[in-house]
Write a structure and sequence with these properties.
Number of domains of chain A: 2
Largest sheet of chain A: 3 strands, antiparallel
CATH topology of the largest domain in chain A: Arc Repressor Mutant, subunit A
Oligomer: homodimer
Strand content of chain A: 25-35%
CATH architecture of the largest domain in chain A: Orthogonal Bundle
Shape of chain A: globular
Radius of gyration of chain A: 17 Å
Structural class of chain A: alpha+beta
Number of strands of chain A: 7
Distance between the termini of chain A: 39 Å
Bound molecules: manganese (II) ion, zinc ion
Chain lengths: ~140, ~140
DNA sequence: CAATTATTTGGAATGTGTCTAATTTGTTTT
DNA sequence: AAAACAAATTAGACACATTCCAAATAATTG
């Protein structure tokens, strides 16, 4: 799917596909995340959605991002102790994290090989593997 | 160094080795982290240090943990959006994160192999690579 | 000892994120 | 369509980790 394919109508379908009732606010929040194709935190989403006229409350932005995540429509990225980033890319992938700017960049999981992880204790299952490469501009 | 080798006297040396002036509070905080050999967050450190009589303020705990980290004596682990964990193990290594209990377990870096990381853009250097394996008890 | 510097401290402030009870919106029933 | 019911949104209070600040203490220097 190309970036220009992320229309509000497509967001409505996407929401339905994830069993989420499409409302004005939910469509706008989904559109903010998917049309930008970026890793955004809650207050950035809020700023985008309310850019013209204030339309969506803080509570709804947080409720909705958590709902999207529970339904598997987006993913959380934990790299910054002060805020959560939300990622519209739910395919398995990893991240470069620019510690100077806070910018996140995807790393395709097909490219990388990871071996030698110790066996899990019995009764444990892997929920996911996150690789974060912290980078910074040369001093 | 064995666990029983972490005495308060050794902490004094360790602090000096990192260019940190050893004070009562700094020695206690270092001792809390190194003698436990665990991943602790700020309020756990505070609880340990003040277990008997309240001796160290919240501000000092935070100041000191940040100082230790800047001087490379300990390391931050970012896995939980609500709090930072501090790790007395500064050797390169990775982590299991039990999302049910919040417990962190080290993974030795010698055991694992990681290949295929894309080349960095020019002017960028890698500061570190963190691999976090999120695990949970079988449903 | 006096002066200076380093460290610690309580408490206020900041910033994310959650909670709650009231309102609005949407849907179903009669 | 009006009433009843359910779902979603909202403002603002709240919680909590962390930082900030200016005053108090402690340690060092001359
Ligand atoms: Mn969440
Ligand atoms: Mn920090
Ligand atoms: Zn991503
Ligand atoms: Zn560790």
């Amino acid at each position: 799917m190309k970036a220009c394919d992320y229309t509000r109508d497509n967001m409505t379908d996407l929401l339905r596909q994830h069993g989420i009732n499409p409302t004005h606010q939910r469509i706008e929040i989904a559109y903010a995340l998917f049309s930008h194709q970026e890793h955004l935190c809650a207050d950035q989403v809020m700023a985008i959605v309310n850019a013209k006229h204030s339309e969506t409350s803080k509570a709804t932005v947080y409720n909705t991002l958590n709902l999207f995540q529970e339904k598997g429509m987006i993913r959380e990225v934990i790299v910054d102790p002060s805020k959560v980033f939300y990622d519209p890319n739910t395919h398995p992938h990893h991240h470069f994290y620019n510690i100077a700017t806070g910018e996140l960049t995807d790393i395709d999981v097909d490219d990388i090989g990871l071996t030698g992880l110790p066996q899990l204790p019995p009764g444990m299952v892997t929920e996911g593997v996150d690789i974060i490469v912290r980078v910074r501009p040369t001093a």
